[in-house]
Amino acid sequence: xxxxxLRSDTVTQPIEEMRQAMVTAVCGDDVYVDDPTxxxxxxxxxxxxxxxxxxxxxxxxxxxxxxxxxxxxxxxxIIVAKKAHIVAYEAGAPAVLAGVNYxxxxxxxxxxxxxxxxxxxRGADIHFPSTGLLCLENALGSGRxxxxxxxxxxxxxxxxxxxxxxxxxxxxFNASTHLGVEAAEIAKYCDSLMFCISxxxxxxxGSLLVGEADFIAKARRNRKMLGGGxxxxxxxxxAGIIALDKMTKRLNVDHENAxxxxxxxDKIEGISxxxxxxxxxxxxxxxxxxxxxxxxxxxxxxxxxIKINGIxxxxxxxxxHNDVSREDIDKIMEVIRGHLK
Length: 341
What we know:
Blueprint: E1 4-5, H1 16-24, H2 36-49, E2 53-57, H3 60-71, E3 77-81, H4 85-88, H5 93-98, E4 101-105, H6 114-120, E5 131-137, H7 148-160, E6 165-168, H8 172-179, H9 183-187, E7 192-196, E8 207-211, H10 213-225, H11 234-245, H12 251-266, E9 271-273, E10 282-287, H13 296-303, E11 306-307, E12 316-319, H14 326-340
Parallel strand pairs: 1-11, 3-4, 3-5, 5-6, 6-7
Antiparallel strand pairs: 2-8, 7-8, 9-10, 10-12
Helix pairs in contact: 1-11, 2-11, 3-10, 6-7, 12-14
């Protein structure tokens, strides 16, 4: 049975062009920095983000943690949103690996603004930790996209206090698609940036950490320390090059499919879609029908060829991606309507 998988855009399968490129990739040894395919991927990633250099990493979590380790010293404090991926979904790694504390921003919309930064920056008192880094996110895990104006405002305030900025841009190309700008326009307002090639871009593995050349040189050592040094990684990088060259240019299709699915879901009595979070390829919705069995819903969907996650904090999340077509959305709606009857 072919499954329609709505759990995440990380479930995308490599396209055939990627599979062929992986078979024929020219490889070296990336720890020796002589894998030509990895070097080309890193060059392309840096160019698309308007930075000097890039580092190919096995995962977005590792790339984020390398960035924190490279920017900060042990005992520092990082300013970051309470619901940010770095805080909520990276296993407490900043405390373990970089030895830093969190200064948490708890805004309802998860956007960090200048007043948040000015209030949380530490002074010179020896009782306080030093503020070592501002961590931003775009797109947000909630599905919202932060405007370029809000990015710039946070960047400018951090620079007033000589604080570097790292951007968790796992879905930066979704954000740039929504905003109608190049990724580099967003990346102007950070010193380092991580983005995933395995979220929605169909590459099987990997994320890129980008920044200035000196920063990336230091980050390379931290990658090695964490066990992230890869050898003939050109096999993976070959898929990444296609992800950047080709798959970034079709994300609008995923956004349009998400819009279509959201509108259809919201028309069903007892289902309410949160349209405040409808910027990219993620749909958040509640099912509030008397007697509805939330535990049985994912099981029913799976039996009908559709994979979904269970309810979390009162909401379901569906993710559209390259492997979800317009026809698949029609089937999803047919199955859901059948269940609710």
